Amino acid sequence: MTLSNPGWPVHLNHGDVSVRPFRRSDAARWSDLRRANEAWLAPWEPGTGTTWHEAHSPAAFRAMLRGLKRSIKDGTSWPLAVCWQGQLAGGLTVGNIVRRAFGSAYAGYWIDRGHAGKGITATALALVVDHALTVGRLHRIEVNIRPENGPSNRVAEKLGLRREGLHKRYLYIDGDWRDHYGYAVTAEEIASERMIDRMARLARTEAEH
Description:
Layout: E1 12-14, E2 17-21, H1 27-36, H2 38-41, H3 52-55, H4 58-74, E3 78-84, E4 87-98, E5 104-111, H5 120-132, E6 140-145, H6 150-158, E7 162-173, E8 176-186, H7 187-190, H8 195-208
Parallel strand pairs: 5-6
Antiparallel strand pairs: 1-2, 2-3, 3-4, 4-5, 6-8, 7-8
Helix pairs in contact: 1-4
């Protein structure tokens, strides 16, 4: 843990799901996953100014990692690998971290289509939110998701994140300014029940009905 980035580095696990910092050795696996998932991921992510194949090469990953190391040192991000049974399956970033009176950050995530539907992303997000709002000394985490993105909205719903409203024309994605739902959770909301426990409780309630 560092004074400029409390809570980092992050190593968390729950069952078959684990979360850890990205490594240089992830380059080939990350590239294979991202390139194979272009149709699944590209509609929901901002463009890079180059082709998807070029933007997701092993060399691009290593360049990205160098940039992320600077943001880690500055205390403004946590770039994390999401793993299933020890193998890289997706990514989760806590970014735009602002300390002091704001104490807030944004979370974004992606998952390989072949691993979708297993509860991996929801579990990873629950673990990271719990860590960020306690050990990480943040007060608020926000997640912004396009209304059309059913799987990502489902992740937020599984965790019982509070939907605060619709952000009109929020991000430029896939050729236009896109609306996003804004979800959030604060440290006070997890004080009596960890997010990972809330997720399990909501799943039981849903199964009973």
